[in-house]
Amino acid sequence: MKLFNSAVAFALLGATLGAQCPTKYHDSATPTGGGNAFPWGCVGLRYQVIIPNTVLGTSPYAITDLLIAGNATTPSFTIDYTSIEIRMGRTKLATVGANWTANNPTPTVVYKGAINNVVLKMNAWNKLGLPRPYLYTGGIDNLCIEVITWGVKGYTAPKNFYFPASSGSIQRAFCYNWINNQTQAPLVGGMGGKIGIVCAGGGGGCNVTATRTFYGTGCGTAARGMQIGNTHPLPKLGQKGTLISKGGPKNSKGIYVIGAQKQSLDLTSIGMKGCSLYSQIDVTMPVTFDAGGNGTAATLNIPNNPALCGGRFYTTVIAIWPGLNTLGVATSNAIELVAGK
After folding, report:
1. What backbone torsions phi and psi does residue 250 show, to the nearest 5 degrees?
2. How far apart are CA 105 and CA 108, in angstroms?
3. Burial of 275 (0-12, 13-18, 19+ CB in 10 A)
4. Of the residues 20, 185, 230, 235, which has the maximum number of CB atoms within 10 A of its CB?
5. Is the peptide bond before 39 cis (omega within 30 degrees of 0)?
6. Confidence bin at 202 (pLDDT 50/70/90)
7. Are residues 234 and 212 in contact, defined by beta-carbon separation less than 8 angstroms?
8. How crowded is the C-beta side of 12, counted as CA atoms within 13 Å?
9. Among candidates 107, 66, 10, which has minimal Cα distance to 338?
10. With contact defined as beta carbons under 8 Å apart, do 181 and 42 qualify?
11. Radius of gyration of the chain (CA)
12. How far apart are CA 204 and CA 194, in angstroms?
């Protein structure tokens, strides 16, 4: 396996992300149409829609926000979602059917939590304010966008309270009051809500806030297992940080891993009981552990390239550890990095 420095790693992972990324619309760029509460104006709902590849394109990019088409009757309406869940995932289906899992077979929970002060203007596209981006990896598949409205300030589920613009040509899978009966299969029909997809790089700037999130558990003899960290807390475009590791094997070697996909792969079956791999292995950088189990640092360079804005990258450590398990290899916890401003 070849070893790359982190600048090359990010360049490779973001090589095909276009600097210009125009907003995508389904089914049209016109924010008008018949009114339907699903999904944004209903509390208690589970909802799915499939965005065709012909709308998305084949190149990868970061989806940084979703647009809601305001209705034709209310000049201004404000929604406070106390809890809303947005999932996205690739699908080979062209349109939704009556099976949640078949519609969205590999979902990523992009965000679950509060989104407040969503202001909807009449006959206009309005930003949801998605707090975290989703990396659409391109290709020939379609994209399922799923919305669950767990709670809305001022309303008790189930309740329709606002009716955004919709279209009879947009098929939707939905279940009214799903949060109170989560075994229900979806109904399927037209009149899905019109939707806009904002992607990274459009307009030449970056409006995504850089974030760093630790996840997973390392394996090893230390109390928390082998750990990965970084000395620069936020992965900002054009800045440099350092990856570090501790609690590793004494006087041994390993690799830092950077990948474009998050995973949680139990490695027990290959002789690594208690260890998991939390990142896809796309590129690597070497690490050497001293007598105290502390790993050498690796420089993390994030290019000042707006095409990387909103991109998610995942990093972890794999180390040779004789005697720890049958295979003699350990893994650390991991860090999710969202590149931004």
Report:
1. -80, 135
2. 10
3. buried
4. 235
5. yes
6. very low
7. yes
8. 14
9. 10
10. no
11. 22
12. 25
Q: Which fold has domain 6-13+206-338?
A: S-adenosyl-L-methionine-dependent methyltransferases (2.20.130)
One-letter amino acid at 331 equals T
What residues form DSSP beta bridges with 174? 47, 187
280-291 burial code (b ≥16 CB/10 A, e <16): eebbbbebebee
Choose between 214 and 231: higher pLDDT: 214
Residue whose tokens read 């990868």 = 60
Which of 82, 20, 5, 8 minimizes the C-alpha distance to 57?
A: 20
CA 2 – CA 17 distance, rounded (Å): 23
DSSP annotation of 289: B
pTM: 0.63
Give the separation between CA 281 and CA 15, rounded to whole angstroms: 17
First to last CA, the chain: 32
- CA-based nearest residue to 146, from 280, 31, 50, 226: 50
* Sequence letter at residue 198: V
- pLDDT tier at 28, thresholds 50, 70, 90: very high
Bond from prior residue into 158 cis (ω within 30 degrees of 0)? yes
Beta bridge partners of 340: 236
Q: Which amino acid is at 244?
A: I
Supply the DSSP string of 189-236, one letter for each residue: ES-EEPEEEEETTGGGS--PPPEEEEES---SSSTT-SEEEESSSS-B
Distance, in Å, from the CA atom of 199 to the CA atom of 41, rounded to the nearest integer, reads: 24
CA separation for the pair 178, 85 (Å, rounded): 13
Cα–Cα distance, 38 to 192 (Å, whole number): 7
Residue 276 has phi, psi (to 5 degrees) of -135, 150
